[in-house]
Hints:
Layout: H1 23-32, H2 34-42, H3 49-70, H4 79-92, E1 96-97, E2 110-113, E3 116-118, E4 132-141, E5 144-153, H5 159-177, H6 185-198, E6 202-203, E7 209-211, E8 218-222, E9 239-242, E10 245-247, E11 253-255, E12 262-264, E13 270-272, E14 275-279, E15 284-286
Antiparallel strand pairs: 1-4, 2-4, 3-12, 4-5, 6-10, 7-8, 9-14, 10-13, 11-12, 14-15
Amino acid sequence: MVKKIGRNDPCFCGSGKKYKQCCINKQRKTDKDPKKLYSRVYNINLKNKKDIEGIRKTGLLVIATLNEAENFIKAGVTTDYLDKIIHDFTIKNNAKPATLGYRGFPKSSCISVNEVVCHGVPGDRVIEDGDIVNIDITSILNGYYADASKTYFVGTPKKDAEKIVKIAQHAIMIGKNTVKPGNKVGDIGWAIQNYAEKNGCSVVRNFVGHGTGFDFHEEPQIPNFGRKKTGIELVEGMVFTIEPMINLGKKEIKILSDGWTAVTKDGFLSAQFEQTIVVTKDGCEALTPYDLT
Ligand code: MF3
Ligand code: CO
Ligand code: CO
């Protein structure tokens, strides 16, 4: 058994001072500073005002890049054509595409059509009328990362396409609405899962949201499913993505032979929206803002 150190015992750090006049205060100070506590206990890097402004700047560029790509989405173009537009726009704005070369990923965006859940590798696939197309862009500007995606209709959407896109868009909004200091990571996932399943859809389990800002993928993971009042407590200055992948059919996926492209196992449609957000004093704010209503 380890004897608990007393206030008047010599401090364990070897200073020769009494514990109460030495490390007792340091430890308490560290524990009261959420930045140090979250870094030590969870490996989460909380962001300060300057960091948040940097990430916001990248986030606005990501949204501008999505808007640029949107102008060129139409039946007959390939996903690679859209990726080139995204690449050139990013470089022109003095930023770098974070996906290019990331763990061997070969392109500057992920473009996921219809049954593709996420990580679609831009290539020869020709976009057709009635398709739904998710474009996911992560850029690095002045060292700061921001990550966002949207699912677009091509031409006239069919009923099932309209349904899954509407539910995915509503799901991220419902997730965002749970974000405030004091709530927990599990509250976000619970809200998303509850909403999607109540509407007869399913939530993909294989991929999750994530901390971001200083690096592409940071702690913590933000699952789009889960239980209320579980997981890490949200605190001001946390920056992470919410990115639910919602399937019209079953939640199971498989990965194609390119090692990246995730598709629904049953071949039904999947849709996704993603934003990078920061936890504020009494809620949250999108750093990759776009309308979700
Ligand atoms: N942008 C994706 C995300 O939301 C990650 C893509 S990684 C890649 O986290 F390698 F597939 F590009
Ligand atoms: Co992401
Ligand atoms: Co993304």
